[in-house]
Amino acid sequence: MAKPGLRFLSDDDVQAIHEAGLLILRDTGVKVHHAEARRLLAEAGATVDEHSRIAHLPEQLVMASLAQTGKGYTLYGRDPGRTARFGHGDRVWMSSPGQYTWIDSQTGRRRGATVQDVQDAIRLGDALDHIHIVGAMGQPEEVSEIGSDVFLTSELVKGTTKPTRCWVRNGRTAGAILEIYRTVAGGAQSLQQRPMAEAFLEPISPLQLPEHGLDIVKAFAQAGQPVSIGPMAMTSATAPGTLAGTLAQENAEILAGLVVTQLFAPDTPIMYGGIPHIMDPETGICSFGSPEQGLMAVAMVQMARFYGFPVYVNVGLTDAKTLDTQAGIEKTSSMLMGLLAGADTFGHCGICGTDHGASLEWLYLDNELAAYVERIARGLTVDAETLAAEVVHRIGPGGNYLADEHTVRHFRDELWLSGPAWNRQSWDGWEAAGCISMNERAREQVRTILATHRAEPMEEKLAAEIDRIVQCAQRELD
Predict the structure, then answer these.
(1) CA 471 to CA 478: how far, in whole Å?
(2) What kind of fold does domain 67-378 have according to CATH?
(3) Which regions form coiled coils (predicted)?
(4) Are 134 and 456 in contact (CB under 8 A)?
(5) Share of the chain above pLDDT 90, in %
(6) Which residue stretches of 160-239 are H helix?
């Protein structure tokens, strides 16, 4: 069986982007808004201007950092048997760590998220087979923005046994969040041995490493947790007006974040987050669904593999605001490109439009899309058993394979069996059922799951300790 291997860059192209990244870091440099990081860079051989905060990174430092960086890792849930593996050939799907608005299931309109919305999203993520990391999905308006990430982390670890993720606000909240994970894991050493969460560093394009982001990286890396680095450079806005130029700058930004991470904590595993976008020339808005999105995602997978890293690409996304034809075209085409290129993980599930909101129906259908494209990625097996020449001879001209033992033995593995959101009825059957759209079927399935699914509850004493950590954090942060 052939493995997926979609490529758009030649080996020479990959080498040229790598060398351009090194050149950018050496000659242009990167602005580092973190005093300790600048000090460590200077001690490691970088040329640092404290006035401009720009650090010029020599090739030797970058290559040494690449050599010592961890190239794969596993995240563990509250149930250690529920994991997400990166760098091992698995495909990992994650519901959104959090959007600032919510798409109401009944009206289709945007509104503020509630705690109940987040709890529903966590329960739905726990139930869906292809969601391996459960995100908070929303930012509840009832909860103060200061410390909301600590509260959401507590809801996540109590509401699902899978690995979890929410957006971490700063270094102070990172400490409380790590304390929650240490408590669930059974102590600091246990958390180091079985990591439960990634730090996410988003360099600010062009060529800046933010202070709060590096505070988070330092806290997580020194606690033995992996780090995902994903700038969102935008072609013709925060990156050059060419795709190759965007890729070169994006690569430089990732490498800069990697170097600092290794200075904070050597051997920290890294996720190469190649998630560039374009700016739509007509609206000036970042596009999630452009054809260039898929092209650059495939190229970023190639760059990550060149360095040996697991890779996150922003595919399976759309600019559409409703589950329509545009959404289907954009989400599926880019998802297939990223998956066939060999990415480890993909654009966060449950996002409506260009980060315009979170939706339970979109999350459910993203899970269905994952099942669909997974079947394509699995390919097909050609051997004596599957060629079935003996079966064809036995059945003969004019025969029927439906009840044959060979068919019964193989059809469940060979054929993808669609779920209740899909329509394979006859026209008459579809009309008789009420001409229901996929969106309506998804809404009904979400209602059914929320009415019936309950995650394995956390032990009461542990839940009480998690609540105590949240309360202490809220007092200290206010």
Answers:
(1) 11
(2) TIM Barrel (3.20.20)
(3) none
(4) no
(5) 95
(6) 171-185, 188-193, 211-222
